[in-house]
């Protein structure tokens, strides 16, 4: 099972800020603050953002690519 398959199975095609925080080992508030600052994390994740109404989601496949999480999980 690849990392991409695992993420899609666990989170589906879109991830919330809470999901991103769980992967990164941070609090959801810490991820929000990082997204609004000019940091390495925000530069990687901003292209993956999709807004649905007022909610912010991240495309799971693009998050996998942006964070370099590729690999085999067994």
Strand and helix layout:
Blueprint: H1 3-11, E1 14-15, H2 17-24, H3 28-36, H4 40-45, E2 49-52, E3 55-59, H5 60-67
Antiparallel strand pairs: 1-3, 2-3
Task: Tell me what you see in this structure.
By secondary structure, the chain is of the alpha+beta class. It has one domain (3-67). It is built from five helices and three strands, in the order αβαααββα. The chain has helices at residues 3-11, 17-24, 28-36, 40-45, 60-67; strands spanning 14-15, 49-52, 55-59. A three-stranded antiparallel beta sheet has the order 1-3-2. Strand 2 and strand 3 (55-59) form a beta hairpin. Helix 2 (17-24) crosses helix 3.
Which short descriptors sum up this protein?
alpha+beta
Low-pLDDT segments, ≥5 res: none
Mean pLDDT: 91
Broad structural category: alpha+beta
Annotation field: number of helices:
5
Instruction: Give me the strand/helix succession.
Output: HEHHHEEH
Percent of sequence in beta strands: 5-15%
With strands numbered from the N-terminus, the spatial order across the biggest sheet is 1-3-2
Give the N-to-C terminal Cα separation: 6 Å
Could you estimate the helical fraction of the residues in percent? 40-55%
- Rg from alpha-carbon coordinates: 12 Å
Count of domains: 1
Q: Based on DSSP secondary structure assignment, what is the total number of beta strands?
A: 3
Largest sheet at a glance? 3 strands, antiparallel
Tell me, what's the shape? globular
